[in-house]
């Protein structure tokens, strides 16, 4: 499977793990739908983490996915059950993309980025 989405049992966190075989152009809609289903079932706001660690993207893939995810009204980043969006990856491109979401064109979404999932979870548990 090209992605896995889960609600962590002991934390208010949903993690979308993007695996190496993910084709973002072909599979974005299915991934977004899986995330939305899980977000819709939450009874309180959660941290929404996307783990890019295994995934390989080029700048075109990142821009396409970013614009869809940040779309006001329909994007998962604006879902009412999202407390905060977090990206996980050691890749500078992913960190740069997280910063780019602060622009009007990408919906003014504040996204924190961490190198590892453990770092992201440490952050979540401290806020």
What does this 3D model show about the protein?
The chain has 127 residues and is an alpha/beta fold. The chain has one domain: 2-Layer Sandwich (Transcription Regulator spoIIAA), CATH 3.30.750. Helix content is 38%, strand content 22%. A five-stranded mixed β-sheet has the order 1-2-3-4-5. The radius of gyration is 13 Å and the shape is globular. It starts with a strand and ends with a helix.
Point out poorly predicted stretches: none
Count of helical stretches: 4
Coarse shape: globular
Give the overall pLDDT as a whole number: 90
CATH class: Alpha Beta
CATH level-4 homologous superfamily: STAS domain
CATH architecture: 2-Layer Sandwich
How many angstroms separate the termini?
A: 32 Å
The assigned structural class equals alpha/beta
Number of strands: 5
CATH topology: Transcription Regulator spoIIAA
Helical residue percent? 25-40%
SSE pattern, N- to C-terminal: EEHEHEHEH
Number of structural domains: 1
| Strand numbers in spatial order across the main sheet | 1-2-3-4-5
Q: State the major sheet.
A: 5 strands, mixed
Radius of gyration using CA atoms only: 13 Å
Binned strand content: 15-25%
Q: What brief labels describe this structure?
A:
127 residues; alpha/beta; Transcription Regulator spoIIAA; 4 helices; 22% strand
């Amino acid at each position: 499977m090209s992605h896995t989405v889960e609600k962590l049992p002991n934390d208010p966190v949903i993690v979308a793990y993007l695996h190496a075989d993910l084709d973002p152009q072909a599979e974005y809609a299915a991934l977004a739908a899986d995330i939305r289903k899980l977000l819709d079932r939450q009874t309180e706001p959660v941290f929404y983490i996307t783990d890019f660690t295994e995934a390989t993207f080029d700048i075109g893939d990142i821009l396409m996915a970013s614009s869809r995810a940040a779309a006001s009204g329909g994007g998962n980043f604006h879902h009412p059950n999202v407390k905060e969006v977090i990206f996980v990856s050691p890749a500078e491109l992913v960190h740069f993309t997280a910063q780019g979401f602060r622009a009007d064109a990408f919906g003014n979404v504040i996204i924190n980025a961490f190198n590892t999932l453990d770092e992201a979870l440490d952050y979540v548990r401290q806020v």
